[in-house]
User: Fold this.
Amino acid sequence: MSIVVTIILTVQMLSALAMIGLILVQHGKGADMGAAFGSGGSGSLFGASGSANFLSRTTAVLATVFFVCTLALAYFGNLRPGSSGSVLESAVPAAPAASVVPNLPAAPASGAAQIPAK
Assistant:
């Protein structure tokens, strides 16, 4: 099962990096307004609408792959044979209370012992 988790983790990392790259390459909705006033840069590799559709769909596919990998890793992370999943049940039991009590100084026998003598 360790190989499966490693493969899923690798696919998740690659999809995350590809998604970051695709999101940074895409232009925002406000970029078309600047191109309309002559700032240039409106031409792109796939054309104005073709690149937006291609990049948006590819980003959506990568986001779906990332989400599925995350769910799979969460599922495999909670699969532990012989365990109920509770952290408290797997904790080490504490030592008995008698051996944990620190050595405290003895209290005086009565209030008269605390009065200083002349």
Notes: Residues 2-25+45-78 form one domain.
